[in-house]
Give the backbone structure.
Amino acid sequence: MDSRHRVRWTYAFIDRPAEHLARACSFWTAVTGTRLSEPRGDDGEFVTLLAEGADPCVKAQGVAAGAGGAHLDFAVEDVPGFVAAALELGALTEAAHDGWAVLRSPAGQLFCAVPWAGESVRPPVVAGSRLDQVCVSVPPSAYDAEVAFFTALLPEWTSRAGSRPEFHVIAPPDGLPVRVLLQRLDGEEPVTAHVDLASGPDTGAVRARHERLGAVPVAEHPHWTVMRDPAGGLYCLTGRDARTGGLPHSEA
């Protein structure tokens, strides 16, 4: 892949129903220690969570239909070249805009190609956690192809098996703020995505803080907790190290 197509920055996009966007933004700015940009878009549906002294890596969108979820924005120098490479690997164009594009992976997950604006300074850990991952949940029939797609699309990233057989990690080079986790579902359900926070070593304290901010626990697993934010969206608190993103006592 041409070096101009290389991903220079990543954004996690939190998608929530438009009528609940303000509630979502109030929660997520508190969680991430950020403030909101001015709204953008025809209906004011896009906002960026601005980090003091660092470049932003989280945005939010009010969606007109559906429950929302999450998606990734890949910031590159050559958007048309990146889009062409993605299409050659099996992506589809969902929408073409002036200077950026919405694409759909082979399994059906939306992601965007956007211009790189010089972002380089990663936001810090805030109150014991860092939003650093978008988890894409994929049905078994599409899982292997989805792993192959993102591995090929992001050749400078590290693609490796996760800590459990249903996970595959695609981790960016040092300095990029958001990585990809692919999760194989048990059944043939539609593809979905959500954001994850690294909250180790004290996930319990992070969870208590999120509950004070209005989130509620949904399910407890050995190494992660599924939560629901005040806007109704699911996300996970994981036991990964908030500084490195790796598992405890590991840089992986």
Observations:
- The chain has four helices and 16 strands.
- The longest strand covers residues 7-17.
